[in-house]
Amino acid sequence: xFEKLFRRxxxxxxxxxxxxxxxxxxxxxxxxxxxELAEGMESxxxxxxxxxxPLTEATSLSFTYICREPVVDRLQRVIGYEFMLRDSSAExxxxxxxxxxxxxxxxxxxxxxxxxxxxxxxxRYTFLTVSAQxxxxxxxxxxxxxxxxxxxxxxxxxxxxxxNIVARMSHLRRLGFGFGLLITKQTLHLVDQLHHLTxxxxxxxxxxxxxxxxQAAVKGMQRWPETQLYIKHIADVATFELCSKVLAKHxxxxxxxxxxxxxxLPWRSDHVDTGKGRIVRLLNAIKHQYDIPVLAESLRHxxxxxxxxxxxxxxxxxxxxxxxxxAERALAIMGRENVYRMLTVxxxxxxxxxxxxxxxxxxxxxxxxxxxxxxxxxxxxxxxxNLFLVGMFSLLDILLRVPTDEALLPLELPAPVLDALLARxxxxxxxxxxxxxxxxGDQERIAMCAAQCDVSETTVNHCHLEAILWAQELARx
Length: 477
Description:
Elements: H1 36-40, E1 67-72, E2 78-84, H2 92-96, H3 98-113, H4 117-121, E3 125-130, E4 148-153, H5 163-175, E5 178-182, H6 190-194, E6 200-204, H7 210-220, E7 228-232, H8 237-246, E8 255-256, H9 274-288, H10 292-299, H11 303-316, H12 327-334, H13 336-349, H14 355-375, H15 381-393, H16 396-400, H17 404-408, H18 415-423, H19 429-437, H20 443-453, H21 457-476
Parallel strand pairs: 2-3, 3-4, 4-5, 5-6, 6-7, 7-8
Antiparallel strand pairs: 1-2
């Protein structure tokens, strides 16, 4: 469905849901976790590529902007998203209050239940962290069961497990819901009582005893062979690699979440391969002149790039009679902006892609579509195209592993786009702040950005969720 890439093509068709969630059995093996594990766990967030601009204005917390973090497997392939209102690692005091926590959970549930979540998720899962008492609410069953994993705060069970909640979990599991159990050192013993209902044991690395807890959970997998681990708030790549090493002997769909996905790795000097260099030259040629014969001749020197262009063009064709079989016709049908947009995406996925690069591209695509959609109501089409570039190239330095200015220099981007990417200034900076804030669960910051961009809460949530759908639909083709 390459037409989804083209600018302002309307709402996509509903996507087919994925199958049920059945976590495969883990191999029960004894594992003595290395001593450095406990020492290596970070209790606070590490480096992050996204530099937050200062906020100076107080704002009310009566809003509910939906935020997300990607959830990946050991190969760093995105398999779903955790949706939230607030980052639990940043607002522990608020979320430690069971009443406030349940209010947040119910507000998020209400927002998601009112949306076409099955269409939104398409073939990926959603993860929602809730208190045990929220499971009793009928609204839970409005979520698509085969695509939803409910992560339960183990401490919300209290001193004893309510049989009504256990019965409710059994019922929801029969419907197809997945379950995780978010544990602390004090609640680890509950896994022994609930592992028959639980797909994932969930650990939060911001816990002060995370290293010891992970060792205990890994050893506990001998008693819970059908259960995998889901590790949250991994601050950096080193910690992710350490977790992967610990789980290396345990087969299964172990999951990870955290800002390590967009953390800058050490810079390298061989960042532009032949394929990326050719795409950059084509991008600049399109900016300077749209000479179809010259561009077509350049494309003929790259059969893979030409084949992708023809696929895009044929997906946009209106009938079988308009089959596109030449570079000249493809360029004429698609037009300057859509060819530029296609090449922008291909810049991310040309050449040899590491598994991590796929996750980076997923986030970049969401940012690009999200920013573009936010500007659609008030800005000119040319500005919306620039917002797409701002979102798309906001992670180019992470992908290429070079400083931001070096990554952007060959592209000859418009000055306002460079201002937003390099200095977080100019007319597009607020939109970039918005799309990155929605990855971090900072409600106050998102509200500030929404005010700066003059967009409503409803618009933000709609554009955000539509961007997730658009990105994963595009990734499937």
